[in-house]
Amino acid sequence: MLTGYEQVKTIVIARDAENNSTAAVDNVKCSLQLAALPVPNNPFEYVGNSLRVAFMIFPGYENQTLTVGTLEDLCLEIIKDRSLIRGLAEAKGLPKRVGEQQAVNFFK
Fold first, then answer.
1. What pTM did the predictor assign?
2. How many Cα neighbours within 13 Å face the side chain of 66?
3. Average per-residue pLDDT in the chain?
4. I want to staple 43 with a disulfide (CB 3.0 to 4.6 A). Which of 15, 57, 96, 103 is the partner?
5. For residues 86 and 100, what is the distance between their CA atoms, to the nearest angstrom?
């Protein structure tokens, strides 16, 4: 066991759903079980008392269903307002009138 592990009170695991959110959930649950840690029934909920454990599957839920994809997909969805993308690209040194696709690719 790692030094200081006894002081850990909360563990949160973040994982991409990739192409199969069900497989992602099953993978995290299996890993927690193999490590003899508390296993939440669902993503985004805690279990345990002295050690609380949770896991998150990204990009998250849409219409109460886990979606496939990655954290990067979630980030792109958040900044899909192109004016924000252009502002971020400009702040990173891209030309002022950078094309939307260039800006999107810049932040992938």
1. 0.68
2. 23
3. 83
4. 57
5. 7
Give CA–CA dist 57/14, Å, rounded: 6
The pLDDT confidence band at residue 101, using thresholds 50, 70 and 90, is low
Q: Nearest Cα to 100, choosing from 75, 88, 69?
A: 88
Q: How many angstroms separate the CA atoms of 108 and 41, rounded?
A: 32
The residue behind tokens 């690209």 is 89
Residue 12 predicted with pLDDT over 90 = yes
How many degrees, rounded to 5, is the angle at CA 62 between CA 69 and CA 45? 90
Say how far apart CA 97 and CA 93 lie, in whole Å: 11
Amino acid at the residue 81:
D
| Residues 96 and 41 sit within 8 Å (Cβ to Cβ) | no
Residue 70: count of CB within 10 angstroms of its CB:
15
Q: Are 107 and 75 spatial neighbours (Cβ–Cβ below 8 Å)?
A: yes
- Main-chain dihedrals φ then ψ at residue 52, nearest 5 degrees: -95, 135
